[in-house]
Amino acid sequence: MSNELLQTALAAAEAGAEVVRGYFRAADLEVREKAANDFVTAADTGSERAILEVVRGRFPDHRILAEEGGGAEECGKGSSGGASRRNEVEWIIDPLDGTTNFARGLPMFAISVACRRGGEMQVGVILEPLRREVFRGRRGGGAEWNGRPMRVSGAAGLAGAFLATGYPFKAHRALDAYLGVFREVFLQARAIRRCGAAALDLAYTAAGVFDGFFEFRLAPWDLAAGTLLLEEAGGRVSDLDGGTRSLETGNIVAGNEAVQRELRHIVAAIVDEAALDRLDPRPPAAAPDPSV
After folding, report:
1. Are 74 and 46 in contact (CB under 8 A)?
2. What's the CA gap between 101 and 195, in Å, rounded?
3. Which of 82, 280, 288 is nearest to 172 (CA)?
4. What whole-number distance in Å separates Cα of residue 19 and Cα of residue 26?
5. What is the pTM of this model?
6. CA angle 292-81-3, nearest 5°?
7. Is the CB of residue 193 less than 8 Å from the CB of residue 217?
8. What is the DSSP string of the chain?
9. Do the beta carbons of residue 163 and residue 192 sit within 8 Å?
10. pLDDT given at position 77
11. Which of 48, 109, 259, 275 could disulfide-link to 212, CB 3.0 to 4.6 Å?
12. pLDDT in tens, 232-269
């Protein structure tokens, strides 16, 4: 079953990529602001439609969580299977991670497709449409970059590490805590990059290009595929407290074992999940709908 899920994730990501490539640097691309510092384009919505068409065509009963909301309106309209079966498997989709980069013509963006069963991520695919970089992984089956096995880096710790991060531009009240972490990491690491696409940051960390990654207040679709890839490539992923709630809290500390451990040590001295919630309360999670 997991191989079938992976093949579907790959096909769905490729379908989304074809749409995205057609819109890149289009002179008439319309950009709309969904909320402060949060944008959407026709490429986002078109990519999501293409991805969902593939997923629904193969698994009409599966739940879908997609950034632009395309999965919600049809949720639960599968042709067979009861509510328990639908709730068991869920696709988590970002049709265009790095929309601001995309809208400004910066070629640093990706498509992320993941699937989980019973709360555990089963497969993940991150695809960079222009260079056709494909990162894919399957629970217990390892991870690959363009068909070759990938592993996290062998960095011995933060000293000399090459890291990735992202700024909490949608959570300004978390900025001081983030900057406190950033300062301490900056003083120890060799370099820190901010590329503007968390899915790609996680993919390149899994591939050993980056030694580690940290960011606050991301969405589940930013993290789902990348966390699976990292774990399957031998890395470690946690929330600010060292737990497994990153998809719920949106906060992530990741890397190879040594780098992640030292990053977590810095984070723990500055902020934890409860403190960040006081600074920047997360909106309450919606109650689950048993019919979907």
Report:
1. no
2. 9
3. 280
4. 12
5. 0.90
6. 95
7. no
8. -HHHHHHHHHHHHHHHHHHHHHHTT-TT--EEEEETTEEEEHHHHHHHHHHHHHHHHH-TTSEEEETTSTTTTTTT--SS--HHHHHHEEEEEEEEE-HHHHHTT-S--EEEEEEEETTEEEEEEEEETTTTEEEEEETTTEEEETTEE-------SSTT-EEEE---TT-GGGHHHHHHHHHHHHHHSSEEE--S-HHHHHHHHHTTSSSEEEESS--HHHHHHHHHHHHHTT-EEE-TTSSS-HHHH--EEEESHHHHHHHHHHHHHH--HHHHHHHSPPPPPPPP-TT-
9. yes
10. 42
11. 259
12. 999 999 999 999 999 999 999 999 999 999 999 999 99
Distance, in Å, from the CA atom of 108 to the CA atom of 20, rounded to the nearest integer, reads: 12
Place of tokens 């991150």: 126
The interaxial angle of helices 198-206 and 220-232, nearest 10 deg, is 0
Residue 144 · residue 137 · CB < 8 Å: yes
At position 238, the amino acid (one-letter code) is: S
User: What does the alpha-carbon distance between residue 89 and residue 95 come to, in Å, rounded to a whole number?
Assistant: 19
Whether residue 71 contacts residue 86, with contact meaning beta carbons closer than 8 Å, is answered with no
Q: How do residues 18-33 score in pLDDT, each as one tens digit? A: 999 999 999 888 888 7
How far is the C-alpha of 6 from the C-alpha of 124, rounded, in Å? 7
